[in-house]
Design goal:
The chain has helices at about 1-40, 45-55. It is elongated and about 60 Å long. The protein is built from 2 helices and no strands. Helix content is about 70%, strand content about 0%. The chain has one domain (about 1-55). By secondary structure, the chain is mainly α. The longest helix is centred in the first third of the chain and has 38 residues, at about 1-40.
Length: about 70
């Protein structure tokens, strides 16, 4: 019974960690997009970068600051 409970907690922890890492990767783009909308400046987020550079490395964390 204890093993099953620990296994469930471990699974939930891994799921929460993946969700947080995914969301934290999107935050800089979201903040940049909001600032550009507020200031009325050119938007250089993912879509613009994709048009300029061809593709974007999805799922690549660029900083270790948010590693859990």
């Amino acid at each position: 019974m204890l093993f099953r409970a620990l296994s469930a907690i471990s699974s939930q922890h891994a799921e929460i960690k993946q969700t947080l890492e995914r969301d934290l990767q999107l935050m800089p783009e979201a903040v940049d997009g909001l600032i550009n909308l507020y200031l009325g400046t050119e938007d250089y987020t993912c879509m613009t970068a994709k048009k300029l550079a061809g593709k974007r490395d999805k799922g690549v964390m660029r900083s270790n600051a948010f590693r859990l």
